[in-house]
């Protein structure tokens, strides 16, 4: 149910009173009508109905980071001090942090901390009001800081998420072949769900509703044997089948750009068997002894893909329940896309960073599947609105 602000409620009440006064005409006190008109115009011309309260300045809160021990610091910003400093150097000179006015922005360090706080929390812990109180800023600043940081991090994507070169693929194939029967495998592909915390405000909202009775996005992630994300897609509704996601990706439509004729990805049974995907057998064929052994071999390798997606969601729990409003505006979908891409970029940058034992994915959507890669250095947006339920 839509709730009106106190200002809107006051304008509505005064408007009704004025209508009644005009209908009564001479029977009503003219001075009273004048007072109503004056009050209505005064409120209508004022942006804020109530006085704005000041909040403690962010400098005091930001200084707390410097006195936190290493474990608490890592839990706060989802990375070590060294990794945080390196990331800050990478993005602090981005144009998004410069204003064409006399008013300077807040320190980039603070903006990055706020965005990482949102990436690293799920549920009520990721609420804008709570983040604002934590860092001593206004709620609107939380949203603005997050958007700026997402833009800056996504600009790193072409140098961080990219399809392996021919030489890299050769090394990947050799490393995988040492552990398996698959000589030309260049990676692993899987799909995973990104739940949305509320029903999308769209005409096709039911397309986001999947068999788990939740509104979500279905995304595809391709990674190598070192858990490095090499390709990903975003934009398909939760009701879209993994096969549809794969068929609409560049890996399927322009496979010659990414694979030699012999190269392929390992996937689960939710994907189609193609020239460049080798998938597990489905039942009842999976029950045959030879096929069951084959499936076990694939599963033993694909666990790397599951670990990759699990690490991504454990470090950035916001991906287990995006607290974003998805509506008909293109900006809302782009923000969700940027949020996901930024977390993928950070995942690759932080592969060699430390890990906290308490970073676990306690979520019904944190299962991992497998699907094929792409060579673009950015996230491609699928036509999610065209996906129909394929359950």
UniProtKB/TrEMBL annotation:
<protein>
    <recommendedName>
        <fullName>DDE Tnp4 domain-containing protein</fullName>
    </recommendedName>
</protein>
<dbReference type="GO" id="GO:0046872">
    <property type="term" value="F:metal ion binding"/>
</dbReference>
<feature type="domain" description="DDE Tnp4">
    <location>
        <begin position="189"/>
        <end position="348"/>
    </location>
</feature>
<dbReference type="GO" id="GO:0004518">
    <property type="term" value="F:nuclease activity"/>
</dbReference>
<comment type="similarity">
    <text>Belongs to the HARBI1 family.</text>
</comment>
<dbReference type="GO" id="GO:0005634">
    <property type="term" value="C:nucleus"/>
</dbReference>
<dbReference type="Pfam" id="PF13359">
    <property type="entry name" value="DDE_Tnp_4"/>
</dbReference>
<keyword id="KW-0539">Nucleus</keyword>
<dbReference type="InterPro" id="IPR045249">
    <property type="entry name" value="HARBI1-like"/>
</dbReference>
<keyword id="KW-0479">Metal-binding</keyword>
<dbReference type="GO" id="GO:0016787">
    <property type="term" value="F:hydrolase activity"/>
</dbReference>
<keyword id="KW-0378">Hydrolase</keyword>
<keyword id="KW-0540">Nuclease</keyword>
<dbReference type="InterPro" id="IPR027806">
    <property type="entry name" value="HARBI1_dom"/>
</dbReference>
